[in-house]
Amino acid sequence: MKNRHIANDTSQIIINGTLSAMADENIAHLTTKSISKKAGVSTASIHYFFNTKENLIYNSFVFVIRSIREEMLHVRKAEKDPIDRVREAIRVHFSATHLSHEAASIWPQLWVYSTYNAQTGRLFKIFGARMISNFTHDLCQAGLSRRKARSAAIKIRALIIGLWVEKQISKNVSPGECWKIFDQLLLDLMTEAENSSS
Q1: CATH dotted code for 54-197
Q2: pLDDT tens digits, one per residue of 145-185
Q3: Which residue, among 89, 72, 61, 96, has the nearest Cα to 175 in the 3D structure?
Q4: Helix H segments across 79-174?
């Protein structure tokens, strides 16, 4: 059991090093040597735990997706009101962690990599589908029809990505402007839900 714990620690150290290296250089220039330097492990360790660089990159993206997914699940469990659940799940994407310099480099690379790496593409597709499904469920609970709830859930996911890019990459909007847009959208959805039930 102790050896397994050490193995898990080493593999996580390698993943952390990969993400750190990825933040400094794009995937096309990533090498096991640059990763081993960042992680402070030998290239032999990288090959032992992950076999190939492609497998390591994939597992690093799995870690990123799981991390944000766990944060979203935490707020979903904590919030009883469906609209508050949606609001807090959105807020996760604009937390300090996901607005860091490292995140600004890693997320766009994940999006691009998922277009030509089938395994990463499936991972990203599943993550997006679950987010839409969760938002749809919440908005149905708030009183929208399933069709309207799904349409709004898709719009929310698109806005999360679009506003994140505008805030983090293009730097065209402030966090305050992002929240005004989300708050107005959620207010409109609440009004629509109330009108549907009356």
Answers
A1: 1.10.357.10
A2: 999 999 999 999 999 999 999 998 888 998 889 999 999 99
A3: 96
A4: 82-93, 101-116, 118-141, 146-165
The CA-based angle 79-84-85, given to 5 degrees, is 55
* Surface-to-core class of residue 50, CB atoms within 10 Å of its CB (0-12 exposed, 13-18 middle, 19+ buried): buried
Within 10 A of 190 (CB to CB), how many other CB atoms are there?
16
Backbone CA torsion sign across 105, 106, 112, 116: positive
**Entry field: residues in the chain:** 198
Q: Extract the tokens encoding 114.
A: 């998922």
Instruction: Look up residue 52 and give its DSSP letter.
Output: S
| Cα 31-32-35 angle, rounded to 5 deg | 90
Long-range contacts of 5-9 (CB under 8 A, 24+ apart): 7/49
pTM of the complete model: 0.88
Find out whether 190 and 142 touch, Cβ atoms under 8 Å: yes
Per the CATH hierarchy, to which homologous superfamily does domain 1-51 belong?
A: Homeodomain-like (1.10.10.60)
Residues 50-94 have pLDDT tens digits of 999 999 999 999 999 999 999 999 998 999 999 999 999 999 998
- Could you give the CA distance from residue 41 to residue 102 in angstroms, rounded to a whole number? 21
Sketch the domain layout of the chain as residue ranges.
1-51, 54-197
